[in-house]
Amino acid sequence: SGRIALPLLSSAPEKKMGLLAGAEAEKSQCATAEV
Predict the structure, then answer these.
(1) Which terminus, N or C, of the chain has the lesser number of Cβ atoms within 10 Å?
(2) 1-35 confidence digits (pLDDT tens)
(3) Residues 20-35: b if buried by 16+ CB within 10 A, e if exposed
(4) What is the 3-class SS of 1-35, one letter each residue?
(5) d(CA 32, CA 10)
């Protein structure tokens, strides 16, 4: 999950978008991974 968040956070102006996208991506991956 961290691999997705890091590249997104690299964009300073899109930090908020990166955080949100990273969080959503992690939730999706965790959910599918658990199932």
Answers:
(1) C
(2) 455 555 555 555 566 666 677 777 777 665 555 55
(3) eebeeeeeeeeeeeee
(4) CHHHHHHHHCCCCCHHHHHHHHHHHHHHHHHHHHC
(5) 26
Cα(34)–Cα(6) distance, integer angstroms: 22
CA distances to 24, 25, 27, 34 from 4, rounded to whole Å, are: 10, 8, 12, 18
Tally of domains in the chain: 1
Torsion of CA 28, 31, 33, 35, to 10 degrees: -140
- Structural domain including 29 reads 2-34
